[in-house]
Description:
The complex is a heterodimer.
Chain A: E1 13-18, E2 24-32, H1 34-37, H2 41-48, E3 56-58, E4 62-65, H3 67-76, E5 85-86, H4 92-103, H5 115-150, H6 157-168, H7 172-196, H8 203-241, H9 244-250, H10 255-294, H11 298-308, H12 311-337, H13 343-371
Parallel strand pairs in A: 2-3, 2-4, 3-5
Antiparallel strand pairs in A: 1-2
Chain B: H1 2-7, H2 21-27, E1 38-47, E2 50-60, E3 65-70, H3 76-83, E4 91-96, E5 99-100, H4 106-114, E6 116-119, H5 131-142, H6 147-160, H7 177-189, E7 195-199, H8 207-224, E8 227-231, H9 235-241, E9 244-249, E10 252-257, H10 259-263, H11 268-275, H12 277-284, H13 287-291
Parallel strand pairs in B: 3-8, 3-9, 6-7, 7-8
Antiparallel strand pairs in B: 1-2, 1-4, 4-5, 9-10
Amino acid sequence: MADLAPTRIHDPEIDAETGADGTRTVRLVGAWDIRALETRARALGGELARFAARDAWDLTGIERLDHVGALLLWRAWARKRPERLRIAPAQELFFENLAHADSGGRTMLRRSLLDPLAALGRRAIAVGSHLAGIVRLAGQVVLDGAWVITNPSRGPWRELSATLHRAGAQALAITALVGFLIGIVLSYLSAEQLRTFGAGIYVINIVGIGIIRELGPVLAAILVAGRSGSAITAQLGVMRVTEELDALNVMGIPAGVRLILPKVVGLTIAVPLLVVWTSAIALIGAMLAARFELDISFNLFLQTLPVAVPTANLWLGLAKGAVFGALIALTACHFGLRIRPNTESLGAGTTQSVVTAITIVLIVDSLFAVAFSGIGVEIRG
Amino acid sequence: MAERVQGRAVIPPPPAPDQGTSGSAVSRAPRTPERPVIAVKSLWTEFDGHVVHRGIDLEVNAGEILALVGGSGSGKTTLLRQMVGLERPSRGSVEVFGFDLRRAPTAIRAKIRKRWGVLFQEGALYSALPVYDNLALPLRELRAFDEDFIRDLALLKLDMVDIERRHADRMPSELSGGMVKRVALARALVLEPELLFLDEPTAGLDPDRSESFVRLLASLRDRLGLTVVMVTHDLDTLVSLANRVAVLFTGELLTVGTVPEVVGVDHPFIRNFFGGDRGQRALSALGPAALAGN
């Protein structure tokens, strides 16, 4: 038994003979266990199907039996013991277990034809519950914020600072790179078009308004949603799965104030700052492209920019940044709190969080565009 | 639920005290004349300068239940993980079924892995799969049986650990701790192993459950001839199941023997481990005869 190749165990075999009185005796020999049947289960199952429970069965010649072998016989017997069965006492266990398992009923839950419809309904309900969840979370953040204002000494200042560092300072490099490249591309492409009309100077209006009002805030928000949104979701998700959130709550440390509030406030502060930074770097990129493509000097560009782009655009960009930041944080926290304790949920939840956050950012951005269409776009100079 | 278990012929009552743990090992003696199932030879383990095991020699015989006990951090779980090849010892060797897992050819290793089952401390159920698929997965991997057969087999194993049919569709995250343990045991048994490794099998189970778990394991050993290595802290489990106990203390094997033999060893750790009220209560189940040897 302790050897991989123990004293030769014989292959499972079936001997059948018909007696004088016409009854058939099926004698089984060899090893009828998973190791022997691994390669032969189908063939032997087919052979056994030739016999039936009304034959006489002799299992005493079996050298080794386990549940796999027993199940093979059980199925050949149509799930009941044959009346004439010779069996070693040690073998009884397997058939007892099989009979007991059958007594529990063999049906499992079956899928219904209406499942796709039900899935659609469930999805609609899920969207509604996500929306409600985000609104509830926003309300909770406002209440927590009010509590911190009345108890400033117990505010989550370290956590806030950590969020600003992680979501803000550490995002400077990537937002600068992306902003710079987009600035060059935008300026370069517009220059090509404008030059054909001899209107090259208007590149400043286009990139100025485009970057400060639209691209800066949206780029910064998308990058933050991808970087910090996913991190927040994963962090809260793991904390929820490992019951750390519950541990905080039972210790009387409100998880909302310590974990969610600083993230929402942190991103509301960090994203507008990142917007300014991204827009500035993008404008530098645009300025460079304009210099080489249209011969617009840095001086001329910088002098024309304040005239071409009314200050209202800057405020609008900042306001968008703050709103985007708050929405990204709320979405990320919401999905983090919905992570279920399994490996798939964490991955799916994080993806869902980022995709939803970016979608929300773009939807809100278009709302901004419609609501503020009359502000900051009058052509001057 | 417990009543149902008791009512079943499958699980015999716990052995009467007089035929205690050492007695049943003797009765199986004719079956184990050959090599031990597991042989640990002068095994050393070091983790960045910290020595976990210093020269451990241990053998596990076929058909016995060997319990590994020791204080926390004494390297019980590490030893178990080395036996199943998840961790490598720094020096020495672990042979399972006569093969050193680190040196054996891949084909042999694959064969050996199909002959054992492992119950992890936290169950380690595949969290993305429902209970049923957790059991069906290893069966499907064999590519030997059709889906109908696999279903019968998986549901049979679930029934053996008293998991009801309606729970087969649940996700592991929807199960209670005790159910996770039982499903994990069913999964460990699904390939009909000859050797079973259990890491804290009864930790986190209520006393009632823990007792039926012990009875299930005892019947598997007695009727299937299963060899079991288990790490446990639970004295009741230890006393009612273990044929032999191996005590690890500060990286060394303090003693190996039957429960009465181990209790007879005069050492602070053993006095502490078996000495408390709980220890005395658990030992009293062995009866005075078993302890007379002290």
